[in-house]
Amino acid sequence: MRITRRTSGGRGEYEISEPAPNGLTPNDILLRRILLDFGAGWIVDSGVQLTSQGGKRRLRLLEGGIQIQRQIAAALMVPHSVRADSALGRGMPILQANRYAIEHIEIADAELSGDDAVQLRIGEIILRNLSHHAEQLRFADRVVNLEHVWQSRAELPEGLAHLIDQHRALTHSGQPIPEQAERVVEQIQRAVTETAADLGILYRSEAQDALPDILTSLSEPPAPPPVAVAEVDPDETEIKRRTVKEWKRWAASRGAASARFRQAVRRAWNSTCAVCGLHLPSTAHNTSAGVDAAHILPWADYDLDHVCNGICLCKHHHWAFDEGLILIRQVDGGYCVEVPADMAQAILTENGGFSIASLSDFAGPIPEARLPKLSGERPSARYLEMLAENS
Which of 135, 207, 220, 283 gives the lowest tally of CB atoms within 10 Å of its CB? Predict the structure, then answer.
């Protein structure tokens, strides 16, 4: 059994055809309310039934809402699909908003439920555009990856995590999945694009599927390749090609590791600047936080992506910290901000209009309430000393 797209004069309609593996036919489920089974107890009442019009079996909504293929797409967090061939795009990736169609939804099993419903267990979903007529979505893997993202959402930027929470709530109510779920998927795609740098993503379009990029930002990076490209014999072209590919893959994963560092530091400091106390987290309205995760010892020199090598700073004080205009030290178990007197005097001698007060006004102890709660996430005293010695 399958739910299939028919072009129907160019507009595009969905109907059910073929018997199910257990012998149940489309005629057996006529006028029954369709329940969608995504597996692992995830059941959605679609609010859709199969009707017969002029000998054609078509899917119709019982009340207002969105059609069944749109509910499935929204549940799986894929970009919005189209029905008409005239709207299809070309090339890869196929999953681009408003440029591909859900061609078939294979039904692995169908079971009558009560007197007026039928439960359809989804098997595989086939996609198409003008270039590719039959591409698998890999449904089972998609559901597993979604579960991972839902469970790991706390590791993502706050605004994106909030949207993912909304997505899960809208798709797990048991009721027909509303149009709002489609809008949340669009917002997730937009948020992933806007926070690409924080997620360690090099290139992406807002129209693209967001799930692979979210998964990349959550994955652990592999170890760097053992051989440098320059060490490969120039005549060993195949080995050199593979080595270059390995280094590119590692460089991309390095972006994800850097993204995890930024997220961990912001989380430890509650997205609050250590120096001035500005609280500037990402939200559903601003997907990019207004504070940075500053390395104490530069990553390029020390390769230390540990929370204790990071301090949360607003853009202004991050610049001042990197320039050595302010120092942060550990004193008597606490932390304090210093503006080196010789540095301040030299700057004012050169340019008396320099806004040194924007730094010196915040000199002094950092309030305990502003520091990370876990001692292991607080700035390393040794790293701070090493930075001061090298300044």
Answer: 220
**What b-and-e string marks burial along 33-43, b requiring 16 or more CB atoms within 10 Å of the CB?**
bbbbbbeeebe
pLDDT digits (tens, 9 = 90+) for 31-85: 999 999 999 899 999 999 999 877 778 899 998 889 999 999 999 999 999 999 8
Q: For residue 155, what are the contacts with CB-CB under 8 A and spacing of at least 6? A: 218, 260, 263
Strand 334-338: give its sheet, edge to edge: 327-331, 334-338, 364-365
Q: Domain boundaries in the chain?
A: 2-139, 267-390
Long-range pairs for 298-305 at CB < 8 Å and ≥24 separation? 299/258, 304/383, 305/257, 305/258, 305/260, 305/261
d(Cα 107, Cα 23) in Å, to the nearest integer? Answer: 12
Instruction: Tokens 């998609």: give the residue.
Output: 142
- Spatial distance between the Cα atoms of 305 and 78, rounded to a whole number of angstroms: 32
Strands (E) located in 19-100: 33-37, 43-53, 56-61
Whether 103 contacts 5, CB under 8 Å: yes
Q: Within 13 Å and on the Cβ side, how many CA atoms surround 204? A: 27
Pair of tokens at residue 92: 């890869």
> Model pTM?
0.66
Tell me which residue has tokens 């730094």.
Answer: 359
- C-beta atoms surrounding 5 within 10 Å: 22
Q: Residue with structure tokens 């959550």?
A: 218
Please report, for residues 60, 70, 109, 132, 193, the alpha-carbon distance to residue 94 in angstroms, rounded to integers and kept in the order given: 27, 16, 27, 8, 18
Question: What separation in angstroms does the CA of 69 have from each of 18, 82, 267?
Answer: 18, 10, 38
Give yes or no for a cis peptide into 93 (omega within 30° of 0). yes
On whether the CB atoms of residues 216 and 110 are closer than 8 A, the answer is no
